[in-house]
Design a protein that fits this description.
Layout: H1 2-24, H2 49-53, H3 64-79, H4 87-91, E1 94-103, E2 109-112, H5 115-127, E3 132-141, E4 144-154, E5 159-161, E6 164-166, E7 172-184, E8 187-195, H6 197-204, H7 210-217
Parallel strand pairs: 1-8
Antiparallel strand pairs: 1-2, 3-4, 4-7, 5-6, 7-8
Helix pairs in contact: 1-7
């Protein structure tokens, strides 16, 4: 019985981890080639042909509006870079009713708004101080920007979960991710982030205990 209790507790710990990560890993940092695009105050003015040539775009023939939307998204990645962490700058890129949806954890979807967005940037900088996002493919279609990327960093900070604190191990994190940004009038209305949680768990050395989950759900006799 004691062994079963320990396994159930382990499963609860993993579940808590997934909830915390679904809130935290939706924000990362832009790749090095895109970072300079977010440094200037007039980033929303759009991107030049030279800027576009440095990005992994599926189509470089963008309209003026599409260039503005892409610039806003790149700015969002930049302000959440590990050595920047401008939480208010990230918040300011969202519309008043803008929302960030972390998709892929145990809960399925967790939504953040207003000041929660800024708190997320700070938390991420604590968990992965060198957090970085490697953009692999960018597709812009009107007011929608879709990006295939990897969230990268080193597990150097404490990872707070409802079940307790997981101490840093120095593990290298490299998680496959897909981001979808929906904008209007130069502001982010919805940001959906789909994260490869199974890969993350493996890199952290924590994999789901399916046997315990099945046992815990079994009807009592």
């Amino acid at each position: 019985m004691e062994d079963m209790d320990m396994k159930v507790h382990r499963w609860k710990t993993i579940t808590a981890l997934a909830v915390a990560v679904s809130l935290a890993l939706t924000i990362g940092a832009a790749p090095s080639q895109a970072a300079p695009l977010g440094e200037g105050p007039n980033v929303s003015a759009g991107l030049s042909a030279s800027d576009l040539s440095k990005l992994p775009l599926t189509d470089r023939h963008l309209t003026k509006r599409e260039k503005v939307n892409l610039a806003v998204v790149l700015r969002a990645y930049h302000v959440a870079e590990g050595d920047v962490l401008d939480s208010q700058g990230f918040i300011d890129l969202f519309a008043k009713d803008g929302v960030l949806n972390g998709i892929g954890g145990v809960e399925g979807q967790t939504s953040l708004r207003d000041q929660q967005l800024g708190g997320l940037v700070v938390w991420m900088g604590t968990f992965l101080p060198d957090v970085h996002r490697q953009l692999k493919q960018i597709t812009v279609r009107g007011d929608v920007v879709g990006i295939e990327l990897s969230i990268q960093g080193t597990f150097l900070g404490p990872f707070d979960t409802p079940a307790g604190v997981i101490k840093p191990t120095g593990a290298k994190i490299d998680i496959p991710t897909a981001d979808f940004w929906y904008l209007r009038n130069g502001k982010v209305e919805v940001f959906d982030c789909h994260i490869g949680f199974t890969t993350l768990y493996a890199q952290l050395g924590i994999l789901p205990d399916y046997a315990s989950a099945v046992a815990a759900a079994a009807p009592k006799r």
